[in-house]
Design goal:
Blueprint (H helix, E strand, L loop, with lengths): L14 E4 L2 H10 L10 H6 L13 H12 L11 E10 L8 E14 L2 E12 L4 E11 L24
Antiparallel strand pairs: 1-3, 2-5, 3-4, 4-5
Length: 167
Amino acid sequence: MALNAALLGKAYPPLYYEVGREKLREFAVAVGETDPLYHDLAVARAAGFPDLPAVPTFPVVLSMRAGRAAYDDPELGVDYGRLVHGEQEFSYERPVLAGDRLVATPTVVAIRSRGRHETLTIETAITTEAGEPVCTARSMVVIRGADPVPEGQAVPAGAAVPAGEPR
């Protein structure tokens, strides 16, 4: 089933998220970040931050939660069983800080065909509740093709083959 390119540009409902210090610390631990800047409020303040800053990849928490609206949209046609992560990037206006009350709004910004596969890019604009831009999270996923290899036809060396298909 192909992705519905007519939904290019569609924005989904925003996610509201209050950033907590313990969530920031838990995320830092989960990604192996040991710099005291991300764990110790006194160190963060000494470095000039008004509160604990988030590690740079923290907005993935918001973008993944907000993006579920797109991934789960039956009109878009994502086969989640064939979805694999492709790329992730963040562009910052300012750091995410403990105490921020953020709004994450996902939008479908690209749908492309790549052979038997498709790519879907969701861009999530993250602002404060007052509308101040904080960062943009951009996530590209690959929807693996479902077409089997025709009987008797060889698969080129290095090509991806769906599970259960002969080479």
